[in-house]
């Protein structure tokens, strides 16, 4: 009997030894879940991930995505705080975040 759990996807892959295996991931966070979907640990982990607060989602390959990636880069981290403020106020990028 197969049970469908919302927010979980399964993916089959071929291991190095040639056997076919299946892994499960939480769709929203991408976190890998325990191998046995019938175990209580599996459902507990799904519930835990569903309760976890998530940040705003930005579509890939958009200006918002570019800004988020730049703000998380080592190059941006090296800049002074005054430069950070200047970037977002002078260039008008604050509403995008």
Can you describe this structure?
This protein is of the alpha+beta class and 97 residues long. It has two domains: 8-51; 63-96, no CATH class. The protein is built from four helices and two strands, in the order E-E-H-H-H-H. Strands 1-2 form a two-stranded antiparallel sheet. Strand 1 and strand 2 form a beta hairpin.
Task: Look at the structure and give the mean pLDDT.
Answer: 81
**Low-pLDDT segments:** none
Beta content: 5-15%
Tell me the domain tally.
Answer: 2
Strand order, sheet with most strands: 1-2
Largest sheet: 2 strands, antiparallel
Overall number of strands = 2
Give the helix tally. 4
Helix fraction, binned, reads 25-40%
Descriptors:
two-stranded antiparallel ribbon; 2 strands; 97 residues; alpha+beta
Write the layout of secondary structure elements.
Elements: E1 8-14, E2 20-26, H1 40-51, H2 63-71, H3 74-78, H4 81-90
Antiparallel strand pairs: 1-2
What would a concise description of this structure say?
It is built from four helices and two strands. Helix content is 37%, strand content 14%.
